[in-house]
Amino acid sequence: MKLRAMAKINLGLDVLRKRDDGYHEVRMIMQTVQLYDLLEMTVSEEPGIRLSANLSFLPTNENNLVCRAAAMLMDEFHIRKGLDIRLKKTIPVAAGMAGGSSDAAAAFVGVNRMFRLGLSTEELMRRAVKVGADVPYCILRGTALAEGIGEKLTPLPSLPPCHILIGKPGISVSTKFVYGNLRAGEIEDHPDIDGMIRAIREGSLSGVTARMANVLERVTVPEYPVIGQIKRHMVEHGACNSLMSGSGPTVFGIFDDEEKARSAYRALRTSRLARQVFLTKPFVNGGYTDER
């Protein structure tokens, strides 16, 4: 079985408060994009989970969320057979695009299907939150409001047709550092998440892009100026708006015109502001129905 583990971006990201348990209460608009890793899964008579990856620095043991997700279901249902998994990474690593969480989500879906466990999407999502807060969303996919620590999900209509330019600079940003330096109680200018939801329901791309905001930029942009430089570069080359995804450092721009998007893609590659550059589209709501 081959499964596409798709990346996500945050059209809006608000942090409401820091909870007593150390986690942060968030409200986010999540959007899946057609940039994906590929998981190829094969049942084996030899017990155990064996993972290989195209990037040598990725862990291939229980430290990889793919192994953790597969093992959780296989242990719960006492599956004695083994599983060989090949992971081809395309989504930038540690980039604020939920690549690892999406890989884990694909592992949940794959094990459920291959061993005919019969779990519904909701049942998979309840288990998935134990692996990571973004994993339930990566099982759901599409456009959604995420609340709580990101695990409380409300599906939304699909984002209007558009083109999405993605640029990741050659830096790494620690999510722990970003949230650790965010003073949630001092945030006064919160993103208009409710207004964005209305715009999505009305099918207004301009209404969505006008409300794009991410409070985590308060920490990352001053610390890593290249993020702001990429944002400006995208807007100067025709993006309706541009934003950092998640805790960064990846930046995306939304375009309502394909030729502008292609021109901006070429310009960003030439600029060398970003080490990895992709041009993609939103993934239309529909879960994992498109894969075999």
Concise account of the structure shown:
This protein has helices at residues 65-76, 99-114, 121-128, 135-140, 175-180, 193-202, 205-209, 217-223, 225-236, 258-271; strands at 2-18, 24-44, 48-53, 82-88, 143-148, 152-155, 163-168, 213-214, 241-244, 251-255, 276-280. With 292 residues, it is an alpha+beta fold. Strands 1, 2, 3, 4, 5, 6 and 8 form a seven-stranded mixed beta sheet that branches. Strands 9-10-7-11 form a four-stranded antiparallel beta sheet, covered by helices on one side.
Written overview of the protein:
This protein is of the alpha+beta class and 292 residues long. Helix content is 33%, strand content 28%. The chain contains ten helices and eleven strands. Strands 1, 2, 3, 4, 5, 6 and 8 form a seven-stranded mixed sheet that branches. Helix 1 runs parallel beside helix 2 and helix 8 crosses helix 9. The radius of gyration is 19 Å and the shape is globular.
Using brief descriptors, characterize the structure shown.
292 residues, 7-stranded mixed β-sheet, alpha+beta, 10 helices, 28% strand, 33% helix, 4-stranded antiparallel β-sheet
Which sequence of SSEs, written as H and E, runs from N to C?
EEEHEHHHEEEHHHEHHEEHE
Calculate Rg over CA atoms: 19 Å
The major sheet is characterized as: 7 strands, mixed
Average residue-wise pLDDT: 94
What structural class do you assign from the helix and strand content?
A: alpha+beta
Shape estimate: globular
Number of strands: 11
Q: How far do the termini sit from each other?
A: 6 Å
- Given as residue ranges, the uncertain stretches (5+ residues, pLDDT < 50) are none
How much beta, percentage-wise?
A: 25-35%
The portion of residues assigned to helices is 25-40%
Number of H/I helices: 10
